[in-house]
């Protein structure tokens, strides 16, 4: 059980990136200079996604999180933040990895938008065929 006081991790999802600094504290979550409720507003389901790794490891009242997010939309940023928190928790205490890994919280969701190919209208959509 190798515990440290402060840990840094980067979480990613699609084009969103979250830089997460995790430290022992009172349980406040500061994202882009705002607390979690101000940053996400009334999106309760997305707030639950962000605190999911803390709830899984029972650290919601003993860890303070400072994070910066950029790229993507607020949902992708929230999932990148969740990934970063999970990675930081796993680095902070090796026992947390066994709790987070089965829930899939340490896996990066690497699905991104496929690039457009030439001769196509979109990535795979062909132009409409005209007989005459």
Structural notes for this entry:
- There is one protein chain.
- With 132 residues, the protein is of the alpha+beta class.
- It is 33% helix and 23% strand.
- It has four helices and five strands; from the N terminus they run E-E-E-E-H-H-E-H-H.
- It has a five-stranded mixed sheet with strand order 1-2-5-3-4.
- The protein is elongated.
- The mean pLDDT is 91.
SSE blueprint and pairings:
Blueprint: E1 6-13, E2 16-24, E3 29-31, E4 34-35, H1 36-40, H2 44-56, E5 63-70, H3 74-92, H4 94-100
Parallel strand pairs: 3-5
Antiparallel strand pairs: 1-2, 2-5, 3-4
Number of strand elements: 5
How many helices in DSSP terms? 4
Stretches with pLDDT under 50, minimum 5 residues: none
| Rg over CA atoms | 19 Å
- Could you say which structural class the secondary elements and strand pairing correspond to? alpha+beta
Name the average pLDDT: 91
Strand content: 15-25%
Largest sheet: 5 strands, mixed
- Termini Cα gap: 73 Å
Order of helices and strands: EEEEHHEHH
Summarize the structure.
This protein has 132 residues and is of the alpha+beta class. Helices cover 33% and strands 23% of the residues.
Which short descriptors sum up this protein?
single chain; 132 residues; alpha+beta; 5-stranded mixed beta sheet; 4 helices; 33% helix; 23% strand
């Amino acid at each position: 059980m190798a515990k440290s006081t402060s840990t840094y991790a980067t979480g990613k999802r699609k084009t969103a990136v979250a830089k997460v600094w995790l430290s022992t504290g009172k349980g406040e979550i500061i994202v882009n200079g705002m607390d979690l409720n101000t940053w996400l507003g009334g999106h309760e389901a997305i707030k639950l996604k962000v605190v999911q790794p803390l709830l899984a490891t029972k650290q919601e009242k003993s860890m303070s999180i400072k994070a910066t997010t950029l790229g993507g939309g607020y949902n992708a940023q929230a999932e990148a933040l969740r990934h970063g928190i999970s990675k930081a928790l796993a680095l902070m205490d090796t026992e947390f990895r066994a709790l987070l890994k089965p829930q899939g919280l340490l896996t990066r969701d690497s699905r991104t938008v496929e690039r457009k190919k030439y001769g196509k209208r979109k990535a795979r959509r062909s132009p409409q065929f005209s007989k005459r």
